Amino acid sequence: MQDCRGREKMKKNIRDLDQADLGELVSSLGEPTYRAIQIFNWLYARGIEEFSKMSDVPEKLREILASEYTAEFPEVFDVKISRDGTKKYVFRLFDNNFIETVVIPENKRTTICISTQVGCKFGCLFCASGKMGFIRNLNVSEILGQVLYIMFRKQIKITNIVFMGMGEPFDNYDAVIKAIKIINDKNGIAIGSRKIIVSTSGVVPRIIDFAKIGWQVRLSISLHSAINETRSMLMPINKIFPLPRLFDACRFYRNETKRRITFEYILIDGINDDEKHALSLAKVANSLSADVNIIPLSIIKQSPLKPAPQEKMIWFANRLKRKNVRVTVRKSRGADIKAACGQLAGLVR
Ligand code: SF4
Question: Core-most of 17, 100, 271, 282, by most CB within 10 Å?
Fold first, then answer.
């Protein structure tokens, strides 16, 4: 389709519409609403990128949709494969921005770590996305396109989805919620809510909104310190939503959903790895019945922070265990291809 100057008009991506929007669209075209369910099924359960393949949809409707919309996934620009089997996909978006998506195989499980923004405005000291600054939010189709590309173009069975890639998911809240609904829908991508984790740096009002939905989707908090002063130094968002407010929101989430929260804790040499930090973390984890993941710091060239040594990680984890905290020490995956936690920056390096 061309605009009045004869230029090719940019088509909208049909995956930016949810099932209700699709229903309205087909009704406005004089079609029964069950057509929306058929189209939805082609888009998500079968991962179709061409309207012409939707064989149970009338040809006329397919032609109208194809003239207005595209159903294509974002284009992969580069793939890197780690020694540990982790793969990092760099997607080029329609406006020449880049995002990164990581696929992590582990025994019978394959987890995909997806991005929700190009860059990020929150500027955490240990994070390459934060160093980029904020460029823009991803559309629903760009969030889902990362998952669908891996499932249908690469034929990889995804079992778990984590919203821990580039960007703060709760800073792109509406698109993330729409995407989760489609991921979780039994006629859509059909991944169970307990297999989905959303990770936030602590956008308090959105934690409250998320709790009110009452989903079984898991919430994890990038905590990294249970001491206000240290956390404000590592994560500027803590100056807007300091720890007491964050913990109140966590308590609200826990009471509303009855789900356990996980605190993500990157262990940084000389910053948050001493007795004082361990005890304050244990105290809050116990009071909120939260689990703790200890994560090694990934080195990014823009940051002076150093990872805590392995023996310190073990000591810190044991200190928490002795206080009856459920703690897991995570291995860093994909660090050799800059795919580990905090290393994603949407650039081809
Ligand atoms: S850790 Fe998350 S919130 Fe912080 S800068 Fe990185 S992407 Fe943004």
Answer: 100
Q: Residue 99: CB within 6 Å of ligand 1?
A: no
Nearest CA to ligand 1 atom 4: 124
Query: Which pTM does this prediction carry?
Result: 0.93
Residue finishing a domain among 70, 98, 120: 70
Q: Which two tokens stand for residue 28?
A: 């406005």
- At 165-186, the pLDDT tens digits run 999 999 999 999 999 999 999 9
* Domain end (from 70, 85, 118): 70
Q: Over the stretch 113-130, which tens digit does the pLDDT of each residue have?
A: 999 999 999 999 999 888
CATH code of 283's domain: 3.20.20.70
Which residue lies with its CA nearest to atom 7 of ligand 1? 167
On average, the pLDDT of the chain sits at 93
Residues 18, 58 share a domain: yes
Say if residue 96 is in the same domain as residue 213.
Answer: yes
CA of 105 to the centre of ligand 1 (A): 24
Report residue 67 as tokens.
């003239």
Report which listed range, 118-132, 246-260, 333-347, is most confident: 246-260
Is the distance from the beta carbon of residue 172 to the nearest atom of ligand 1 less than 6 Å? no
55-61-66 Cα angle (round to 5)? 90
Q: Which residue range is the domain that position 169 belongs to? A: 75-337
The pLDDT score that the predictor gives to residue 4 is 47
Sheet holding 218-222, edge to edge: 75-81, 87-92, 98-106, 109-113, 160-163, 196-200, 218-222, 262-267, 291-296, 327-329
Domain count, the chain: 2
Of 121, 120, 102, 119, residue with least CA distance to 111 = 102
